[in-house]
């Protein structure tokens, strides 16, 4: 009996792992409105221009006003780089949002985050971010 249970569990694990590996990342989906446009960097010598940089403003009710900008940064003027962990809640210090923040001598800053990319009508929760249906926004 124990052998059958172990064999059944092993088969389920192999099937789940196989299914997980078949999920392929794709930019060709209906993404949530706040994540439908990916930023694209363009390197020119010691400078980088980031096209489609997300710079949203939020109303008091949380409604976003979408705004995308193109910004140029002189990498020779980079003065600070921070790796930041922002926990999802004060009560649970486990999962956290991670991002890099870069500061430049000309008082410009840019933050680059790793976050789950949600499809339309997907509830934002820690559980949804941890499943295969959410994808990371890939750096280029």
What attributes characterize this protein structure?
140 residues, alpha+beta, three-stranded antiparallel β-sheet, 10 strands, 18% helix, elongated
Overview of the structural elements:
The protein is α+β, with helices and mostly antiparallel strands and 140 residues long. The chain has one domain. Helix content is 18%, strand content 38%. It has two helices and ten strands. It has helices at 2-22, 126-129; strands spanning 40-44, 47-54, 57-58, 64-65, 68-74, 78-87, 96-104, 109-114, 116-117, 135-136. The strands form four sheets. It has a three-stranded antiparallel sheet with strand order 1-2-5, with no helix packed on it. It has a three-stranded antiparallel sheet with strand order 6-7-8, with no helix packed on it. A two-stranded antiparallel sheet has the order 3-4. The longest helix has 21 residues, at 2-22. The model is unreliable at 123-132 (pLDDT under 50).
Helix/strand layout:
Layout (H helix, E strand, L loop, with lengths): L1 H21 L17 E5 L2 E8 L2 E2 L5 E2 L2 E7 L3 E10 L8 E9 L4 E6 L1 E2 L8 H4 L5 E2 L4
Antiparallel strand pairs: 1-2, 2-5, 3-4, 6-7, 7-8, 9-10
Give the SSE order as H and E letters. HEEEEEEEEEHE
- Low-confidence blocks of residues: 123-132
State the oligomer: single chain
User: In percent, how helical is the residue content?
Assistant: 10-25%
Number of strands: 10
């Amino acid at each position: 009996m124990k052998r059958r249970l172990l064999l059944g569990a092993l088969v389920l694990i192999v099937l789940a792992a196989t299914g997980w590996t078949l999920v392929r990342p794709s930019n060709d989906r209906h993404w949530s409105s706040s994540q439908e446009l990916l930023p694209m960097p363009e390197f020119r010598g010691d400078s980088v221009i980031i096209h489609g940089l997300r710079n949203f403003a939020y109303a008091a009710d949380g409604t976003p006003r979408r705004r995308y900008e193109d910004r140029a940064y002189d990498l020779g003027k980079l003065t600070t780089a921070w790796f930041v962990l922002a926990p999802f809640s004060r009560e649970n210090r486990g999962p956290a949002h991670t991002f890099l923040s870069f500061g430049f001598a000309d008082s410009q800053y840019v933050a680059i985050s790793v976050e789950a990319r949600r499809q339309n009508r997907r509830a934002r929760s820690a559980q949804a971010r941890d499943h295969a249906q959410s994808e990371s926004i890939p750096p280029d």
